[in-house]
């Protein structure tokens, strides 16, 4: 049993943010039916890897929504779904005649989640966006930089993950409300607002002090402390994150290093003093770390009770990390073709009714006949006729 | 109007690692009771402070994560405090906690003890590495969790160090997944009548907030590298305008973009038909963005973004977070919500909820609690008499 057994999600999402939201619902047991069109770009092998990680456990139906009969099939699927999700620009679903008012006529208690870039109202509601542009607008790109350095930002669309993971929460909250009252509702999720809501206390501070934010490299954003940052280790592109906050942390750190002479300087004796001399401290820590194997230094420092960790690259993460392996974070999933593909699993564990990867990513249109027959009672003759008309892609 | 989660009672024992989970649930309408040690929880000691004055009631850090929560104090480390926690748990739906694995059990407040009193109880633990596995007793800060979860390696310039995110995104993702897991457990409880444990690891939560890193490894053994502001898809890069930075985008309406650059007379070879193939634009991204950078330098950020959006090209300003505070679009949508802090005689503009449930909105229902503000109220609700409460207060338990 899984928590969302019996819940059906009609999934019009594409690229990343929307599929991230619906993959969590699929992990939790929902029957997620992806409505796709032929010719849309994807990320290679649909079964595993990046596509499979986005589409794990979903079913795929191809419908040509620009044909009346294709749209009619979509509307009939709405009538048997609990949740309808899309992440198009605001006007797309309206232009298709699938806005919330219409969906509600088809399914009175539907939960409709519109994951647009800018939201359904406001002067920029029709602006176009992708994850990189939204995280730039929210301040991440400019502020993720070294002090006085040019913007660097995320190497990927964190905004899509922020909006997607929060989108799953929005669906669950609306479904919870529906389970208590019998009423569905419209959820207006602006991906800009979703990622902006995660900037955190900095944004509250700027609202109060009217000040200017400047990049602080890898300095702490929680309790102030030093050394705090990312330090080079032996070998190419090997790095260790080390975070020392309290004087007790410092004592453990110094002890782990074998009490070297330089750590006894008065200018490093207290947290305030270490913060004041953080640049010099970083240089000295780097002079030590440069000769360490990253994994060994991590074990040494963690053994002493210091929060430290390898800056994991893809191979560290997926191929070597014993902790994620012990949690079963990455899974091998068999495909109907007899292959085995690797996919990321849900990042949280439920003890009694676990979320899990229900299957590999679907091939394009793999479940068209199955879904239309099962949910709409379409006969083989009808399906053949629809296919000949080009309605099924 | 009541929130979507009205009627749910949540006990929030978390520190900064899990504080967002309680905020999300509280803003959605759950009755979230923040349980702090008698001297105040760790968040109250974290800067920045209002007007720079360190004080448990002036931490903006605490304020951000504590909206809509009620607040009580309780020393769970001492037996009468642990007993009182069990009494609170008997009457609640959910516990959020971020203690080191095993600590609550050692205090007699582990999942078995609490569920013996309340079989329907959902317990969500947010810890650096989760409740089991070889690293379960290791420590992590937000930065260490970002590092070990794979977020950090791919951020930064090629010749510089990896860079951590703006904001505590390991804690934030863990908070989101905890809230998701709690709701999943509550849906399951509707069927089974039983609660369960939700095990959230900061490291795994970060790994669950990656895009290309794991997928490209799974499918091709590719180790994604840092490449400055060039997005991994190679369709986005930061460029310089007259007065600031802009995010270029070469997916969207390519024809309109090229027409525009051509009209300005600096299109170089961008008019070549080969560039119409989106894959070619990825392959030749460095050259493409160099041409676009030279073009963008003649515009202000505002001119470029306005012109691009008119042509349905997804350009955006690269601006500091305070740009959000001055954004007319967000102002019209009321993203920032003014909340009164009467004790300080001020109004605080809180960033709004991440999404809008139009019928039962997520909103800030009350300002963050002052230390011990709701002791009488909450302990009264579980049946403590004023005399009992006075005794506990004398003992320093509350």
Describe this structure in words.
The complex is a heterodimer of chains A (393) and B (398). Chain A has helices spanning 17-27, 49-55, 68-78, 90-95, 100-106, 131-137, 140-143, 158-181, 191-196, 201-209, 247-256, 271-276, 278-289, 294-303, 314-320, 322-326, 368-376, 380-389; strands at residues 8-11, 31-36, 59-62, 83-86, 111-116, 185-190, 228-232, 239-243, 307-310, 330-334, 340-344, 348-350. Chain A is elongated and about 85 Å long. The mean pLDDT of chain A is 97. In chain A, α1 (17-27) crosses α8 (158-181). In chain A, a hairpin with a 6-residue loop joins β7 and β8 (239-243). Chain A folds into 2 domains: 8-198 and 327-389, Rossmann fold, CATH 3.40.50.10540; 228-320, formyl-coa transferase, domain 3 (2-Layer Sandwich). Chain A is of the alpha/beta class. In chain A, strands 3-2-1-4-5-6 form a 6-stranded parallel sheet, with helices on both faces. A 3-stranded antiparallel sheet of chain A has the order 7-8-9, covered by helices on one side. In chain A, strands 10-11 form a two-stranded antiparallel ribbon. By secondary structure, chain B is of the alpha/beta class. Chain B folds into 2 domains: 9-209 and 335-394, Crotonobetainyl-coa:carnitine coa-transferase, domain 1 (Rossmann fold), CATH 3.40.50; 236-324, formyl-coa transferase, domain 3. Helix content of chain B is 36%, strand content 14%. In chain B, strands 3-2-1-4-5-6 form a 6-stranded parallel sheet. Chain B has a 3-stranded antiparallel sheet with strand order 7-8-9, with helices on one face. In chain B, α1 crosses α7 and α3 (79-90) packs across α5. The longest helix of chain B is centred in the middle third of the chain and has 24 residues, at 169-192. The two termini of chain B are 33 Å apart. The mean pLDDT of chain B is 97. Chains A and B meet through α2, α6, α7, α8 and β6 of A and α2, α6, α7, β6 and α8 of B. β12 (348-350) of chain A pairs antiparallel with β6 of chain B, so a sheet runs across the interface.
